[in-house]
Design brief:
- By secondary structure, the chain is α+β, with helices and mostly antiparallel strands.
- It contains three helices and eight strands, in the order αααββββββββ.
- Strands 3-4-7-8-6-5 form a six-stranded mixed β-sheet, with no helix packed on it. Strands 1-2 form a two-stranded antiparallel sheet.
- Strand 5 and strand 6 form a beta hairpin.
């Protein structure tokens, strides 16, 4: 039996190393539709803890181009305040102006700007927020030529309100219809 435990441990190390290497090579890429754990023999080997770890690595999305993978506990610091210009949700094909004349997407100017410390609130009407999934990204191009990149951490039914997480963390709450989405700042890049 010790030989089987050794084989399982060696396989786990190889799979974790491969997962980390893949994450480092795919910085900034959109998450794939098929996840790595679909191809892993985790269930057959009874590696539920390993499977959960791989899924958390895939969904964390906490990396910034050029710096490699970050620890799930480490988040980039908040950005300086700047007016948000657009809301982009690549997985839903959404790219709309914020606070435009005829838009149903508005940033609550009484709260923090998206990307700054605190929870910025953006109300949206007519967007299918319920189709978002954890680990997907939301982008907010801003007037300072930076795009704040957020990763979805929670989708809640109902118009949830309130602020979650540490006060110094930059977060984004999208509220629309009967769905609220909470995302945290996981990166930034220059707007082209």
């Amino acid at each position: 039996m010790p030989r089987a435990k050794w084989a399982v441990a060696a396989l786990t190390v190889v799979l974790l190393s491969t997962g980390i290497a893949v994450l480092q090579r795919t910085e900034g890429a959109r998450p794939a539709a098929v996840t790595t754990d679909d191809a892993l023999p985790s269930r057959a080997l009874g590696l539920s803890g390993h499977r959960r770890l791989v899924r958390e690595l895939e969904q964390s999305g906490e990396h910034t181009p050029g710096t490699g993978a970050r620890s799930p506990r480490t988040a980039p610091g908040p950005l300086r305040a700047a007016r948000p210009l657009r809301l982009r949700i690549p997985s839903l094909g959404v790219d709309v102006p914020l606070n435009g004349d005829r838009t149903e997407v508005a940033w609550d100017t009484g709260g923090p700007a998206p990307g700054t410390a605190g929870t910025a609130v953006v109300t949206v009407e007519g967007l299918p927020l319920g189709e978002l999934r954890r680990g997907r990204t939301i982008e907010i191009p801003r007037a300072d030529s930076r795009t704040a990149v957020f990763t979805v951490v929670r989708i809640s039914p109902g118009r949830a309100s309130g602020h979650e997480g540490p006060p110094g963390r930059a977060q984004l709450r999208l509220v629309g219809g009967e769905t609220a989405v909470l995302a945290r700042l996981t990166g930034q890049r220059r707007t082209r």
